[in-house]
Amino acid sequence: TEIFHDDPLVEVLAANWSTLMDKGPFSLLFLDSGQSDGRLAGDVSVEAVVDLVEDGGIVVLDDFTPCESWPPIAYGRVDVLREQWLTDERFTTAEVMVAPDASTLIATKR
User: Fold this and answer.
1) pTM for the whole thing?
2) What does the DSSP assignment read for 32-62?
3) How far is Cα 90 from Cα 70, in angstroms, rounded to an integer?
């Protein structure tokens, strides 16, 4: 947050994303999927987040484990959250490997 301290055009909020429901829409949302340990950090589904993002806005979801199969599998079951983000027609979403054992979803609202 320090990098944006003197920029009046940027507001950095560090909180549970659900506290943002009365703010926005946002041009950028960074959300923790919570999937690095096999548990969700909260409902970060497309349906829960779509109205928080302006058209053309970007959602970044981290803490995914890379998967080369389809449908995506994580922790022995279909990764429904990742599948939702990668197939929802309201977003164009790409999965990016950020480390050998970590990937991130970057979604742009259409």
Assistant:
1) 0.82
2) E--GGGTS-SS---HHHHGGGEEEEEEEEEE
3) 20
C-alpha to C-alpha distance for 95 and 102, rounded to whole angstroms: 10
CB of 74 closer than 8 Å to CB of 64: yes
Q: How confident is the model at residue 1 (pLDDT cuts 50, 70, 90)?
A: low
Residue with tokens 């979604």: 107
Backbone angles phi, psi at 38, to 5 degrees: 85, 0
H or E segment to which residue 84 belongs: helix 80-87
Residue 76: which residues within 8 A CB-CB, separation 6 or more? none
Give the whole-angstrom CA distance, residue 83 versus residue 95. Answer: 11
* Local structure of 66: helix, strand or coil: coil
CA-to-CA separations, 108 to 23, 56, 69, 95, 101, in angstroms, rounded = 19, 6, 23, 12, 24
